[in-house]
Amino acid sequence: MQKLYRKQGPDIYFHFKPLVLLLTVIALILLVLIYANGVMTNQKQEQLTMENLTQKQAVGLVLLDEEAELPGTKEARAVVDEYERKQEIKQQKWLAAQKKRVAAAKAAAKKKAEKKAREEERKKILQIARANTRRTYSGTYSGAVLSRGAGTVMGPSGKETYYNLDMSTCVRIMRGMGFSASQYPYKVRSDGVKTLGGYVMCAANLSLRPKGSYIMTSLGVGIVVDTGGFASRNPTQLDICVNW
To answer: Which regions span the lipid bilayer (predicted)?
Structure first.
């Protein structure tokens, strides 16, 4: 029996040899396929990456790859970065200067417009004052100007006198009527005449010339802010507010 087994051993090996060779070939083929698939996958991934890059980014990658090993690349990049940084600072300064110039131009234009509006308003008020004078007084005006020495004159709107009293109550009443402190500040002129918004403050007959109305005086355009006992005796008389 032992002899028979030894005799059949080599025959069995040669009987399975083709199968072994076939399995070996299949294993090699599988290994080749796996390797090829890995290479193709990497190539496809690189292609997708390049396709997703912009042209500028792709060129940058190529240049970076080509110049990475060149001598002086880092130094050159540092010089370029410093130049770009200085250019950015210069650009920001220019923009800031431009903003200042634009803001200054807008402020100047606004100031000019406000000045023009004030001038137009004063012209309009002058026309109103002249119309009120013509409506309430029919006398003639010789050009006399009220002064401390003169005491009394015949002005463009009638007889003029003067008085010197605290005007704070009158100013407060005028503020309540809408004559704001910003547009109608209370001031005393260099000649001693008290003004509201630049207009001569005066007392008048309120039935003929109501508070807030404009009227011509020998000292300029007047604004009625007060009244007095004289108004009933002489309706066209004006009492000018001064600090004399």
So the answer is: 12-36
- How far apart CA 215 and CA 129 sit, in angstroms, is 4
The string over 200-212, giving b where at least 16 C-beta atoms fall within 10 Å of a residue's C-beta and e elsewhere, is bbbbbbeebbebe
pLDDT tens profile 132-155 = 999 999 999 999 999 999 889 999
Residue 60: both structure tokens together? 């940058």
Name the region of 165 (left: φ>0; alpha: ψ -120 to 50; beta: rest). beta
pTM (predicted TM-score)? 0.59
pLDDT at 30: 79
- Nearest CA to 167 among 175, 177, 158? 175
Instruction: Assess contact for 213 and 223: CB atoms under 8 A.
Output: yes
Residues forming a β-bridge with 158: 155
Under the banding of pLDDT at 50, 70 and 90, the label for residue 70 is low
CA 24 to chain centre: 82
Contacts of 162 (CB under 8 A, 6+ apart): 146, 148, 151, 239, 240, 241, 242, 244
Taking the CB of residue 131, how many other CB atoms lie within 10 A of it? 13
Pair 212, 223: CB distance under 8 Å: yes
Helices (H), the chain: 2-52, 55-67, 73-136, 168-176, 230-233
Domain borders along the chain are 108-244
If we measure between CA atoms, which residue out of 243, 200, 244 comes closest to residue 224?
200
Q: How do residues 82-93 score in pLDDT, each as one tens digit? A: 888 889 999 999
Structural contact between residues 202 and 215, judged by C-beta atoms closer than 8 angstroms: yes
Tokens of 221: 């355009």
